[in-house]
Amino acid sequence: MTTIAVTTWSLEQTAPADLRPAAAPEGDVRVVRSEVPSPEFSRFLYASVGGDIRWTDRLGWTYAQWTEHLDRPGVETWVAYDRGTPAGYVELEAQRDGVVEIVYFGLIPAFRGRRIGGHLLSLGTARAWDLAERHPGLKPTRRVWLHTCSKDGEHAMDNYLRRGFTLFDTKVENEPEVATPGPWPGAHPA
């Protein structure tokens, strides 16, 4: 089996004032919380956003696994829509002691390069900072973190840095090289 070296960078914000919001893109772009847990919709977003950058860890999840994950307190999905069409999403997950991870973030390939990503990351990060306000029993957020890797989009790291995230860890590991799953064979940007 062929392996590839993958660099993973972990970044964080330690105060709400760290967030440097991006300007809103032109046009009818809205970011809305998906308040009703929907395994079908979440799997669609995951496969559509991550299909060309080798997101594979959740592809084998069963319906029950998706349901169990989405029903956890402090797990939220925020979806960007461009004129009513899903364009991308950010998934937040409350962790222990007031820590929130941005577990997944990205855009469907056809929507990249339109300045939607900075806007979505800004709003998603702001929602990470006020997550406890929507989930009684969670501690107030004191840290927001995420990781990105060398398999992610070429502008991912720059977007995180522009939004005020700072690097706190770097790792390089060999991973099995897997085929790009795509949302389905032959899919490509519109």
Automatic annotation (TrEMBL):
It comes from Streptomyces pilosus. It holds the Pfam family Acetyltransf_1. The lineage of its organism: Bacteria, Bacillati, Actinomycetota, Actinomycetes, Kitasatosporales. This is N-acetyltransferase. It comes from the Bacteria. InterPro entries: Acyl_CoA_acyltransferase, GNAT_dom. Residues 39-190 form the N-acetyltransferase domain. CDD domains: NAT_SF. GO terms for molecular function: acyltransferase activity, transferring groups other than amino-acyl groups.
